[in-house]
Design a protein that fits this description.
126 residues, Rossmann fold, five-stranded parallel beta sheet, 5 strands, globular
Length: 126
């Protein structure tokens, strides 16, 4: 039986982080939360079955820089970037890094749908 997907959630706002973690847990995902990009960047290893959910605006390293750092280490998990009013530059950088953007405020199940789509694409590629 395949393991449940692990979601690596980075958001510096404790209330947003807690509510997103709760919502994703209800969908059956295992959640690992981080309040800054640097903590996730320091993680030594990642499972094969997972997804990154990264806030773009973080203190220190932003979500795109974090994703580029992870990609540079060969970590190819699907990624969802959450942000409000992304600029054309942010959209281009997200696409280049292989992330989809879900805009804040997060409505209905847009985040869950993006995570599931990324995981399905990952499974097809495996």
């Amino acid at each position: 039986m395949p393991s449940r997907p692990r979601i690596f959630l980075v958001d510096d706002d404790p209330a947003v982080r807690a509510s997103l973690a709760f919502s994703l847990e209800l969908e059956g995902f295992l959640i690992e939360t981080f309040d800054c990009a640097e903590d996730l960047a320091e993680r030594a290893s990642f499972p094969e079955n997972g997804c990154h959910v990264l806030d773009y605006r973080l203190p220190g390293m932003d979500g795109i820089s974090l994703l580029k750092s992870l990609r540079g280490r060969g970590i190819g998990l699907p990624a969802v970037l959450i942000t409000s009013a992304p600029t054309r530059t942010v959209r281009g950088a997200a696409t280049e890094a292989g992330a989809v953007i879900v805009e804040k405020p997060l409505m209905c199940d847009a985040l869950t749908a993006a995570v599931r789509a990324g995981l399905q694409q990952q499974a097809r590629a495996a």
